[in-house]
Specification:
Blueprint lengths: L1 E8 L1 H5 L3 H21 L2 E6 L7 E6 L2 E6 L8 E9 L3 H9 L8 E6 L10
Antiparallel strand pairs: 1-5, 1-6, 2-5, 3-4
Protein backbone atom coordinates (compact mmCIF):
# COMPACT_ATOMS: atom_id res chain seq x y z
CA UNK A 1 0.00 0.00 0.00
CA UNK A 2 1.19 3.52 -0.75
CA UNK A 3 1.49 6.21 1.93
CA UNK A 4 2.39 9.87 1.71
CA UNK A 5 4.63 11.13 4.49
CA UNK A 6 4.23 14.90 4.68
CA UNK A 7 7.17 16.59 6.40
CA UNK A 8 6.07 19.58 8.51
CA UNK A 9 8.36 21.87 10.50
CA UNK A 10 8.62 25.34 11.97
CA UNK A 11 10.88 27.51 9.80
CA UNK A 12 12.21 29.28 12.91
CA UNK A 13 13.73 25.98 14.09
CA UNK A 14 15.65 25.63 10.84
CA UNK A 15 16.61 29.31 10.88
CA UNK A 16 18.14 28.79 14.33
CA UNK A 17 20.44 26.00 13.06
CA UNK A 18 24.04 26.65 12.20
CA UNK A 19 25.27 26.04 8.65
CA UNK A 20 26.94 22.83 9.85
CA UNK A 21 23.70 21.62 11.46
CA UNK A 22 21.75 22.33 8.26
CA UNK A 23 24.33 20.48 6.14
CA UNK A 24 24.16 17.50 8.54
CA UNK A 25 20.36 17.49 8.33
CA UNK A 26 20.58 17.52 4.51
CA UNK A 27 23.14 14.69 4.51
CA UNK A 28 21.07 12.65 6.98
CA UNK A 29 17.91 13.21 4.91
CA UNK A 30 19.58 12.10 1.67
CA UNK A 31 21.11 9.08 3.43
CA UNK A 32 17.69 8.08 4.76
CA UNK A 33 16.24 8.41 1.26
CA UNK A 34 18.99 6.06 0.03
CA UNK A 35 18.15 3.61 2.84
CA UNK A 36 14.46 3.68 1.89
CA UNK A 37 15.34 3.12 -1.77
CA UNK A 38 17.49 0.10 -0.89
CA UNK A 39 14.76 -1.35 1.37
CA UNK A 40 12.14 -1.01 -1.38
CA UNK A 41 10.03 1.57 0.50
CA UNK A 42 10.89 4.72 -1.47
CA UNK A 43 8.80 5.75 -4.45
CA UNK A 44 9.77 9.44 -4.53
CA UNK A 45 11.01 12.08 -2.08
CA UNK A 46 11.20 15.83 -2.64
CA UNK A 47 11.92 18.88 -0.53
CA UNK A 48 9.84 21.99 -1.17
CA UNK A 49 10.88 25.62 -1.44
CA UNK A 50 9.59 28.14 1.08
CA UNK A 51 5.87 28.98 1.10
CA UNK A 52 6.97 32.49 0.10
CA UNK A 53 7.55 31.06 -3.39
CA UNK A 54 4.05 29.52 -3.54
CA UNK A 55 0.91 30.70 -5.25
CA UNK A 56 -2.61 29.61 -4.39
CA UNK A 57 -5.04 28.97 -7.25
CA UNK A 58 -8.81 28.97 -6.82
CA UNK A 59 -11.62 28.60 -9.35
CA UNK A 60 -15.02 29.87 -8.22
CA UNK A 61 -18.02 30.21 -10.51
CA UNK A 62 -15.76 29.59 -13.49
CA UNK A 63 -13.37 32.40 -12.55
CA UNK A 64 -9.74 31.73 -11.65
CA UNK A 65 -7.89 33.75 -9.04
CA UNK A 66 -4.23 33.48 -8.10
CA UNK A 67 -2.77 34.85 -4.88
CA UNK A 68 0.81 34.87 -3.69
CA UNK A 69 1.79 32.58 -0.86
CA UNK A 70 -0.06 29.84 0.97
CA UNK A 71 -3.76 30.04 1.67
CA UNK A 72 -3.51 29.46 5.43
CA UNK A 73 -1.09 31.05 7.83
CA UNK A 74 0.28 28.30 10.03
CA UNK A 75 3.15 28.00 12.44
CA UNK A 76 4.42 24.91 10.65
CA UNK A 77 5.04 24.68 6.93
CA UNK A 78 5.05 21.74 4.57
CA UNK A 79 8.71 21.25 3.82
CA UNK A 80 8.60 18.16 1.66
CA UNK A 81 7.11 14.76 1.10
CA UNK A 82 8.10 11.15 0.78
CA UNK A 83 5.86 8.74 -1.10
CA UNK A 84 6.47 5.23 0.15
CA UNK A 85 5.31 1.68 -0.33
CA UNK A 86 4.63 -0.03 3.01
CA UNK A 87 3.00 -3.29 3.98
CA UNK A 88 0.60 -1.56 6.39
CA UNK A 89 0.12 1.55 8.53
CA UNK A 90 2.48 0.30 11.23
CA UNK A 91 5.24 -0.18 8.65
CA UNK A 92 4.55 3.32 7.27
CA UNK A 93 4.74 4.80 10.79
CA UNK A 94 8.08 3.06 11.38
CA UNK A 95 9.40 4.52 8.12
CA UNK A 96 8.10 8.00 9.03
CA UNK A 97 9.76 7.86 12.45
CA UNK A 98 13.13 7.50 10.73
CA UNK A 99 12.78 10.73 8.74
CA UNK A 100 15.40 13.09 10.21
CA UNK A 101 13.00 16.06 10.43
CA UNK A 102 10.71 13.99 12.66
CA UNK A 103 13.12 14.96 15.46
CA UNK A 104 12.31 18.67 15.15
CA UNK A 105 9.03 18.74 13.20
CA UNK A 106 6.23 16.30 12.51
CA UNK A 107 5.44 13.76 9.84
CA UNK A 108 1.84 13.28 8.73
CA UNK A 109 1.33 9.76 7.36
CA UNK A 110 -1.64 9.39 5.06
CA UNK A 111 -2.68 6.41 2.91
CA UNK A 112 -3.04 7.09 -0.79
CA UNK A 113 -6.62 6.95 -1.99
CA UNK A 114 -7.16 4.95 -5.15
CA UNK A 115 -10.02 6.33 -7.21
CA UNK A 116 -12.25 3.47 -8.27
CA UNK A 117 -12.47 3.07 -12.02
CA UNK A 118 -15.95 2.24 -13.19
CA UNK A 119 -16.10 -0.73 -15.48
CA UNK A 120 -17.72 0.00 -18.79
CA UNK A 121 -20.20 -2.61 -19.92
Amino acid sequence: MKYLCQVWFEPSRLDAMTSDEKRKLDRDSLAYDDHLLESGHLIVAQALQSPRSAVTVRVRNGEMSVTDGPYAETKEQLGGFILIEAKDLNDAIRVAAGIPLAKTGSIEVRPIYTIPVEQQG
